[in-house]
Structure formats: C-alpha cells, structure tokens
Amino acid sequence: MAIKTLSAKNAAALDKDLMSIGAFSIDQLMELAGLSVSQAVYRVHPPTRGRRVLVACGPGNNGGDGLVAARHLWHYGYKPTVYYPKQSKNDLYQRLSTQLKNLNVPFTEDFPAALKESDHVVDAIFGFSFSGKVREPFPAVIEALSSTSIPVTSVDAPSSWNIEDGPPSSGPGSTFNPAVLVSLTAPKPLVKYFKGRHFIGGRFVSPDIQKKYDLDLPDYEGIDQIVEVGANGQKL
Amino acid sequence: MAIKTLSAKNAAALDKDLMSIGAFSIDQLMELAGLSVSQAVYRVHPPTRGRRVLVACGPGNNGGDGLVAARHLWHYGYKPTVYYPKQSKNDLYQRLSTQLKNLNVPFTEDFPAALKESDHVVDAIFGFSFSGKVREPFPAVIEALSSTSIPVTSVDAPSSWNIEDGPPSSGPGSTFNPAVLVSLTAPKPLVKYFKGRHFIGGRFVSPDIQKKYDLDLPDYEGIDQIVEVGANGQKL
C-alpha cells in the first residue's frame, strides 16, 4: 500500500489551516513541534548515551522548532549547544533564543568545532518550505552532517533534500541520510529515500484536517508526542 | 524540614518574570501548564479507568490551563466535556475554545448533569490569583466538587481555597479536599491543608528564577512534565 504523504504545497496549506481555522498560534505549534523533536531525541539517544547535543538551527520555522527542542533537552538533563548563524529578528525567535540564554545554553559560531564535541546532532536547518539551493553558511554544515559518524536527527526533512524528490543529485546533501527523522504532522514525499528511524510528531491535528489532506496517521500511544513509523512512513 | 512554597504575591511576580525576563509568551506557558495537567490526569486516572473527563474552567488563566488540558486529554483518547460558564473575550481563550470545538469536544452549561456522566473532574476554576468570595455561578459547582465521589484533579489550587490559608472556614469549599493537585511551577502555602496525590508541573523554570524565589524543586524524570511530591509538597 502506498504511504499517504503531504506534499510541500499541502504542508504549507495545512500549516496555514492550523493557524486560521485551527486557531493555533505559532507559539503553540512551535512549542509542541519542538517538544516532539525533544522526545524523539530522548527515545533514540537517552542522556545516558551522551548528553552533548548540538542543535543546528536555520533561519525559519524549522530553526524555531530546534530552539524549542534545545530548551526541552536542557530540562531533560542534556547539555545542548546551539548553532544559529542566521538569527531572525522576528520577536518569537528572539524570545526562544532568550529562553535558552537564561539556561546558559551556549551558542556557537564554529559548527565543525562544536560537532567534534557532540554526542548527537539535531538538524533543524530547513523544513518543508525549503527548495532550490542551500545558501551560505549552510553548504559546509550539510557536508559535515553528511560525513559525520555522530547520529543526526532531522526535523521534518533532512536539510537540503527536496521535499518531493529527496536528496539532491550532487553537491551538499547528495550523500546525506540522517539516522533519525521526525516528520511533523505527517511524512513528506521525500521519506521514500529515507533509511533511518522515523517518527511522526505534532499531536495536534484534528480529524477534519486529517480528512481534508487525506492523511492516514498512526495512533500515538499514551501521552507520547511522537509515534514511530517505518523509514518510509508505513505504520509499524 | 519546612517545605519551600510560593506565596500568592510571589507566584504573581514569578509569572510576570517568566513573561518579561523569561521571554515566554502566555501561549507557551499555558500550553506547557495544560500539558502538565493532562499528564497528571493520565497518571492517576488512565483512560482504561474511564474516559469521561469533565473539565471545569474559570474565567482566567486557570481556566485557560484547563482548556489546554482538555485538548491534550482528547488526543490521549479521553472524552472530555468542558464547563466554561464565564468565557473570556480574550483572544487566547477564544482560540483555545475553538481548538476544542474543532475536535467536537462538547461544552456544557449544566454542571450537575455533566458531573453525573463523568469518571474524573478537572477543577480549573481558580488559581493563585484567587482571593475573597466565590462568585456566581461557581458556589454550587464548588459544593458539587466537595460532595462528589468522583475524583477531582485541581489545577494549582483547590478552587475556593485561600492561597495562603487553605480552605475557607465556612461556605463553599470548606469541606473540599480534591483527590489530586497539580501545583504549577511550585507548591503554594495552601498545600499544608491538602491530603491527596500531589504533582508539580511546569517544567520551564530556570535556575535563576528558582534561586530568586528560593524554590527547592524536585527533579523531574525522563521527559515527564510532572513530578510527584508528598501531599504537603515534600520530596518523595
């Protein structure tokens, strides 16, 4: 059976619906998305395996999810470090950064040096709205994520991948296949190229929205904000 | 050893600090507070014990926490019903209500009838800013919560209790002692009169704020948003 995925266009429309008819604020959605990511990291890489988590944040909403995840990881007992080279002037992102600074979470500008000192990496660089070419300073970061032996958890999409067509045929990201992917709300078409552990997160989608976008989401268990699925999105 | 509690005055000041120097939005804090409440309900009363949860919401922030908890409970597989007789015109509360309506969560105006059809009740009527007299239509609701045999989980304070002095000496609430209390951020002085299961929720307090308010919070475990303490707030 084919997996029901959410195209880039529909992911954007669904996000818009959540904030209009769904009446969610971006603060709420980002809090729950970041919380999902933090729970996936805890599941695959509990603090006993190494507390040093490097969180790479891009300039948009995917980066915001990463900032929220970093805060929750700190509260779980991890030692997160944040790489956030293109900081948005948007009030929300500035507040999420302040929340981390109040916990004395370090922000680094040297990704390769920080990577060497890490046990796990969160890739919150680009999400479902990414397309085209990876802009500076991220090509080298994607290259480092592709070649590192440290496990990487990608948020919504392995950064640099085309949402429909998967990894680029050449250049940064062409050999990138992270250990873990957290698909927010629903898997995107790119999951057919993914080979690692795969979770769905974002336990806030109403039945109406599931129906409108023809999603077939697996049941979450207990109070979990994530549910594990097969690499390509199939129910387990 | 005396338990460190947070006075009504300091609880208000801490809340203000969270939103100013802490840089949290009310949306974020309410989401995490309501999530804590939902996790406590799941812990003490899993859905296998009965899915019908009546959530009584007051006009302020405590009611907002209840609205968030009701949504998470729905996602956990409960069948929440909301009693929210004094609905705020504040945009946030209206959005939280819409989020529930989108899940077809029923809103009732008949508290006694709804109580008869419930397995568990969440008391999100009044929180740390309550003082003075219980206003209509809540006296009868507090009386019903005092005499019902259905377990009640109170959010931050058993509604009608004075934050410092505990249950009123007479009238509604004088015999109210809920089965469960979720103290948000830290226990209030009223916990010395409380006799049930007690959780602390709100896993977002920074070490600086803990220090400023001389709090001595227990460690949360794993990814939990709640931690159980003794009835009067002592660490277990």
UniProtKB/TrEMBL annotation, chains A, B:
GO terms for molecular function: metal ion binding; NAD(P)HX epimerase activity; nucleotide binding. (6S)-NADPHX binds at residues 61-65, 127-133, 156. It catalyses: (6R)-NADPHX = (6S)-NADPHX; (6R)-NADHX = (6S)-NADHX. Binds 1 potassium ion per subunit. It holds the Pfam family YjeF_N. Its main location: cytoplasm. Residues 11-217 form the YjeF N-terminal domain. InterPro entries: YjeF_N_dom, YjeF_N_dom_sf, YJEFN_prot_NAXE-like. GO terms for cellular component: mitochondrion. The keyword Nucleotide-binding applies. Its EC number is 5.1.99.6. The keyword Metal-binding applies. K(+) binds at residues 62, 123, 159. Its cofactor is K(+). It is found in: Cytoplasm; Mitochondrion. Keywords: Cytoplasm, Isomerase, Metal-binding, Mitochondrion, NAD, NADP, Nucleotide-binding, Potassium. NCBIfam families: yjeF_nterm. Catalyzes the epimerization of the S- and R-forms of NAD(P)HX, a damaged form of NAD(P)H that is a result of enzymatic or heat-dependent hydration. This is a prerequisite for the S-specific NAD(P)H-hydrate dehydratase to allow the repair of both epimers of NAD(P)HX. Belongs to the NnrE/AIBP family. This is NAD(P)H-hydrate epimerase.
